[in-house]
Design a protein that fits this description.
Distance between the termini of chain A: 57 Å
Strand content of chain A: 15-25%
Oligomer: homodimer
Order of helices and strands of chain A: HHEHHEEEEHE
Number of strands of chain A: 6
Number of domains of chain A: 2
Strand order of the largest sheet of chain A: 1-3-2
Largest interface: A-B, 34 and 34 residues
Helix content of chain A: 40-55%
Structural class of chain A: alpha+beta
CATH architecture of the largest domain in chain A: Orthogonal Bundle
CATH class of the largest domain in chain A: Mainly Alpha
Shape of chain A: flat
DNA sequence: TCACTATTGAGATGGTGAATCAATTTCATT
DNA sequence: AATGAAATTGATTCACCATCTCAATAGTGA
């Protein structure tokens, strides 16, 4: 029993439930995906480029979207590209972003998280992940 | 003194500070922008299409990005397009998003806002805006 | 007004992600 | 193991959004 192969079970469940099939490509893409916190289709493509039978870019996209449907991944539009976040890795760091110099500070705040859960519960939601970005001006840029 | 022309001052400040110019196009685009809560470049283009001297799509994109730099707007990738949110209109509604059906619920929570200010202060930041999105599953989709 | 510089607009370009479809692979059933 | 229906793959094409290019134009400080 491997410690990091809980997710393949989740994937198998989803595949079985939707009459989909477990292919070599899906396994290979999952193996790479599980080791990353987040990845783009392009990055994944490059990482798998040296595999013996090539994996096409279209398959990468399809499979990452499949992971989203199976609840393993979550798509996030970042700049022009789509980041596929690994849900199991969610040591979610939130961000403070300086709109002047672009400096980014990561933070984590349990109180905020608790309040988020509360808001979600009041609205009947079960939170899987979140994104919190604070935009402002840092000390240096305030002159 | 017009009540809705505070933003043109902000824009002028930004332009002056960066040696940029106030053009007819920028004024027209601002006028439309100020009346919308959020808008895409494509929408803006269509709304200005009947103006006497045409405004090119490239200019729309450039100007909306300028507004972001000036702190009047905030870009948000939604689906395949980019939404430009009018910051002055946002009685900052944050979002609860169902990853299954796409349902979006807006909410506001003063306690969270207060904690955000605190985090920012501890890091030497002065917050201008923020973006908070909670992703999860809504009641209907949980079966 | 002048001169300098930023801006504009039409079109070309780039880049992401999805659609197509013939060939291939999976897997439940023999 | 073999079969065959159904899903998957991958090379390519396609659609779309946003940015870049560059000659012509317009704003601004003197």
């Amino acid at each position: 029993m491997h410690k990091d192969h809980k997710e393949i079970g989740l994937l198998r469940d989803h595949l079985a439930k939707h009459q989909l099939k477990l292919t070599r490509q899906r396994e290979q893409i999952l193996n790479v995906f599980l080791r990353m916190e987040h990845i783009t289709a392009e990055q994944m493509y490059r990482m798998l480029a040296k595999k013996d039978p090539h994996i096409g870019l279209a398959t990468i996209y399809r499979t990452l979207n499949l992971f989203c449907e199976a609840g393993l991944a979550q798509a996030r539009h970042f700049g022009t590209q789509t980041q596929y976040d690994n849900i199991s890795h969610k040591g979610h760091h939130d961000h403070l972003i300086c709109t002047d110099c672009g400096k980014i500070v990561e933070f984590e705040n349990c109180d905020i998280e608790r309040l988020q859960e509360e808001v979600a519960r009041r609205n009947g939601f079960t939170i899987k992940t979140h994104k919190l970005e604070l935009y402002g001006v840092c000390t240096n840029c305030r002159h």
